[in-house]
Write a structure and sequence with these properties.
Length: 208
């Protein structure tokens, strides 16, 4: 039986989403019969500006993805930082380039989850995910929320923790804060959870 292919597609400027993405991949690859692959969307900011922003170099072990490559996947996890309550422009530009796939509804019926990073509590921990669902809906993808499947970790009140029922999340604050152990555990759980669903749908596809 062929493995279910899960594509973890992300954009990360300062590395917070990349850290989350790698943990999501670990969780997904923990599911037997699933092959999870990391991909980056293209950067739209010039190198000169990136240097002025003191952005670190992009991961050299994660290839850039082209829109047409999405067809090869059985499911997705999309990750991005928040910008004013919506996904970063780089990721929106990538989705804007998927019009040919939309015309053919080539991604319809494929499961997809979302994870993210925001600066602080009011930075869009839920709104960023909620506004991103529109991209999935127009493509006919099946949004897979995390719900409260992470158990007691969803109710943690003794420490700052990103994420919600929409998916895993982290806080970057002024950029110095890194994803916590609990946030990484939630990312791992989300990767495993979505991978299990992608595997089930691949082995038992929706009726035409």
């Amino acid at each position: 039986m062929a493995k279910a292919k899960l594509y973890i597609v992300y954009y990360s400027l300062y590395g917070h989403v990349e850290t989350m993405a790698r943990e999501v991949q670990r969780g997904a690859n923990a599911v037997q019969g699933v092959e999870a692959t990391l991909w980056q969307v293209p950067e739209t900011i010039s190198n000169v500006i990136l240097q002025k922003m003191k952005a670190p170099a992009k991961a050299d072990d994660v290839p850039e993805i082209r829109p047409e490559q999405l067809i090869d996947a059985d499911g997705f996890l999309f990750g991005f930082p928040s910008r004013f309550g919506v996904m970063a422009a780089q990721f929106k530009a990538f989705f804007d380039a998927t019009s040919e796939l939309w015309e053919r509804q080539a991604l319809a019926g494929k499961p997809a989850g979302i994870f993210w990073s925001t600066g602080f509590h009011g930075g869009g921990q839920e709104l960023t995910a909620l506004t991103a669902v529109t991209q999935l809906a127009h493509h006919g993808m099946i949004f897979v929320p995390l719900g409260y499947t992470f158990g007691s970790g969803m109710f943690e009140m003794n420490e700052v923790k990103g994420g919600s029922s929409y998916g895993a999340g982290t806080y970057a604050a002024d950029g110095s804060r890194e994803p916590t152990e609990l946030e990484l555990q939630q990312a791992f759980h989300q990767g495993k959870y979505v991978a299990e669903i992608a595997k089930k749908l691949k082995n038992k596809p929706l009726s035409a």
